[in-house]
Amino acid sequence: MLGIDTECIVGVMSVKHALLGLLESQSRHGYELKHSYDEYFTQDKPLNYGQVYSTLARLLRGGLVEESGVEAGAGPDRKRYAITEAGVTDLANWLTKPEEPAVYLQNTMYVKVVLALLSGREATAVLDAQRTTHLRAMRELTQRKNEGDLTDALICDHALFHLDADLRWLELTASRLDELAERVRAS
Predict the structure, then answer these.
(1) I want to staple 29 with a disulfide (CB 3.0 to 4.6 A). Which of 78, 85, 110, 140 is the partner?
(2) Which InterPro entries does this chain map to (predicted)?
(3) Which residues have a Cβ under 8 Å from the Cβ of 123 and sit 6 or more positions away?
(4) HEC sequence for the chain
(5) 87 near 59, Cβ under 8 Å?
(6) How buried is 32 (Cβ within 10 angstroms: 0-12 exposed, 13-18 middle, 19+ buried)?
């Protein structure tokens, strides 16, 4: 398993909309939805069955899915769920609405650098430690990308591009550290 949080890799995903999207092609029961979700979206951190069924209950109450039958199984009977027209409309609206870019104008790395300067600690040590952590994560992601399938490659590329941007910021900040230190001391 990677030494980084998988939520950072895949970002915050709408489980509701993912389940609606999986139901659009065919009706399914919760067990099938959970396995399809895990296959496509979360290889490192599988979706909890409780989350599948609580989300299905909310979708059912909201009129976005409906029960479409019951199958007998080895255990309890399994309810099948199908997306409704309202669910298709909700999914279509979500799919066509662009996500707001995550802009981090005041992020933790910046705060740590400024606090290190304010406290008289070595801000370069903060930047170096962060750079080392980012490079380790990039190596792990690159290995996963090279050993995985297309899904892994796409997920890892997204994360690698973000880590690369962070590394560029670390380098730029290191080159401006003296100027930042002067401003911090002057305020």
Answers:
(1) 78
(2) Tscrpt_reg_PadR_N, WH-like_DNA-bd_sf, WH_DNA-bd_sf
(3) 113, 116, 117, 177, 180, 181
(4) CCCCCHHHHHCCCCHHHHHHHHHHHCCEEHHHHHHHHHHHHCCCCCCCHHHHHHHHHHHHHCCCEEEEEEECCCCCCEEEEEECHHHHHHHHHHHHCCCCCCCCCCCHHHHHHHHHHHHCCCHHHHHHHHHHHHHHHHHHHHHHHHHCCHHHHHHHHHHHHHHHHHHHHHHHHHHCHHHHHHHHHHC
(5) yes
(6) middle
Number of residues that this document lists for the chain: 187
**Cβ distance 156 to 113 under 8 Å?**
no
**End-to-end Cα distance, the chain:** 44
At 59, the amino acid letter reads L
CA 96 to each of CA 23, 81, 93, 101: distance values in angstroms, whole numbers, following the listed order: 18, 24, 5, 15
Whether this model's pTM surpasses 0.70: no
The tokens describing 56, both together, are 């299905």
